[in-house]
Write a structure and sequence with these properties.
Elements (H helix, E strand, L loop, with lengths): L5 H4 L2 E4 L6 H31 L6 H18 L2 H8 L5 E3 H34 L4 H4 L2 H26 L9 E2 L6 H5 L7 H35 L3 H29 L8 H4 L2 H19 L2 H15 L4
Parallel strand pairs: 1-3
Antiparallel strand pairs: 1-2
Helix pairs in contact: 2-3, 2-4, 2-12, 2-13, 3-5, 3-12, 5-7, 5-9, 5-10, 7-9, 9-10, 10-12
Length: 314
Amino acid sequence: MDNRNHTSWVTEFTLLGLTNDPMTELILFVFFLVVYIVTLLGNSLMIITITFSSTLQSPMYFFLRSLSMIDISFTSSTVPKLLLDFISEVKRISFTGCVAQLYFFIAFGGIECVLLAAMAGDRYVAICMPLRYKEVMSWRVCMALTVICWIIGLLNSLAHTVFTFSLPFCKSKAINHFFCDIPPLLSLSCADTRSNELVVYFAGGSVILGSFCITLLSYIFIVTTIIKIKTSSGRLKAFSTCASHLTVVTLFFGTILYTYIRPTSTYSLDQDRVVPVLYGIIIPMLNPIIYSFRNKEAQGAIRKVILRKKSGLY
């Protein structure tokens, strides 16, 4: 029988989730609910603070506000469904819902990859070309870079989604994951998935590795410039301006490279379904904390926003 017809028979999938133990599911429900609330509150606070603070109107904060918007969308593509599944006996997702979830998860993840590279470029200009910073990083340039991030992320996700769901799913309807992701979906297909792997390597690899290489190259120039600074206080001040971004980049790219840029023969679906929890759920929660932890300017602006809100000025 023609395998191409099998895909049309699939109207829904079953998500196996993170665990089958009811008590563990209850604990995880509370944990992820708290994480999601903190993510929404933290990133929303960053968006509001940067929007209304006159002292946070530099390109760095422009990109940081965009990052917070992306993080809210990124984590919202999986966590609400995950929370619902924790309290449901059968964890079902419709075929259309699975398509949408994969598309938005890959899209927002890709946008964040490119945005982090753009932020690295901003730090490069700030440290290596300080006298030309305002000229090079104009608002027009910042807007253009942001639009490019969105275009690349959306087109990359479209390619992955189309290629993934053009496969015939006839092995099983049970996805060994807590959301619809590429590796577990490929494992359900009875067709040859080598072409899909090539799409992951070339399309996804171009976005992920390309963004990573731009970021790495930017920091090579940044470190080289910082080393040339004569005073230790000057070197420390220069490094502190990019320490938060470097921390986020290390966490995000480390986990996402591990998940997607390797052969499917090395996948261990039982183990790999935990890794997306880090870059898709935990890191979006940590980003506003990391960026404001050692940033006195941001901390001061956040305090002013909170005080204004309490006094009813917003």
